[in-house]
Amino acid sequence: MDKKVRIIIVFGSNINQRYHMENAENMITKLLGDGVVFSKRIWTKPIGLVSDMFLNRLAVGYTNYEIMKVERELKNIEYSLGSTNTERHNGIVKIDLDILLFDNQKYHEKDWERDYIKRLMKELSDKGELSPL
Length: 133
Known about the structure:
Blueprint (H helix, E strand, L loop, with lengths): L4 E9 L3 H16 L4 E2 L3 E3 L9 E10 L3 H14 L4 H5 L6 E7 L2 E2 L2 H4 L2 H12 L7
Antiparallel strand pairs: 1-4, 1-5, 2-4, 3-4, 5-6
Helix pairs in contact: 1-2
C-alpha cells in the first residue's frame, strides 16, 4: 500500500492495567510512528464477563501497511504482553487491541455504540485530533 490511511485502535486491559497499557502504547507508537495520538485512559466496568475494571483508551494514527499486516502486528503485541485465549476465556484480559477504523471502513460495529468509545471519540474530536468520520 502506497498511501497512508487513518487507523483507530481501541485498547483494553483488566489486569495490571497500567503496565499492560503503557507497554502496548509504546509498541503501537513503534508500529504507527510518532504521529499517533492517544485519548485519555478511562476505567470501565466489564461487559459480558466477571472481572476487575477495565482500563481503556483509543489510538489514532496513520499507516501505509495493509490491514492484514496491522492485525498480525496487534496480535503479536497482545502475545508479547502475555495475552492468551485461555486466559481470555477465564476473564483475564492482559491487553486487547482491536481496529475500529481502517481507512474509511468501520470494524467492530457494536463497539462503536458503547458509551466509553463514544466518549473517547468525542474527546479526540473536541481536541481536534479526530476529523469527522
